[in-house]
Amino acid sequence: MTRSATGETERLARELERVVWRWQQLPLDRALEASPGVSAVVQHLADEVARHEGLPVQPVPDLGPAVLMDQLTVMVHDHQTAGLSASALADELTDVRRGLP
């Protein structure tokens, strides 16, 4: 892994940590309000990875706001494992965090 790739991977890990921390601070009503947008990002990542791996696209189950950050974390891991852009994903997570109420 190149130095810049390592830096982008570290930036992605930091941004995921920041999103999860921010999510944990949300009251339930705000988490419920924000869930559809975050779920859409999780589904987008799942779709991207499936297409990249040549797998069929399948819906990510809605398990509620208590599990949503676990789903996001898994999708970020899968995204990295598939070799997709850490930089673009870090930017997307920044947008998610900034969009939380």
How are the SSEs ordered, and which strands pair?
Elements: H1 3-25, H2 28-53, H3 65-81, H4 86-99
Helix pairs in contact: 1-3, 1-4, 2-3
Q: Indicate the radius of gyration in whole angstroms.
A: 13 Å
Give the helices and strands as they follow along the chain: HHHH
Number of domains: 1
Q: Find the structural class using helix and strand composition.
A: mainly alpha
Number of strands: 0
Shape, principal axes of CA atoms: flat
Report the span from N to C terminus: 36 Å
How many strands, what sense, and barrel or not for the largest sheet? none
Mean pLDDT: 94
Beta-strand content bin: under 5%
Poorly predicted residue ranges:
none
Total helical elements: 4
Percent of residues in helical segments? over 70%
Q: What does it look like?
A:
This protein is an all-alpha fold. The chain has one domain (3-99). It is built from four helices and no strands. The protein has helices at 3-25, 28-53, 65-81, 86-99. Helix 1 (3-25) packs antiparallel against helix 3 (65-81) and helix 1 (3-25) packs parallel to helix 4. The radius of gyration is 13 Å and the shape is flat. The protein starts with a helix and ends with a helix. The model has no long low-confidence stretch (mean pLDDT 94).
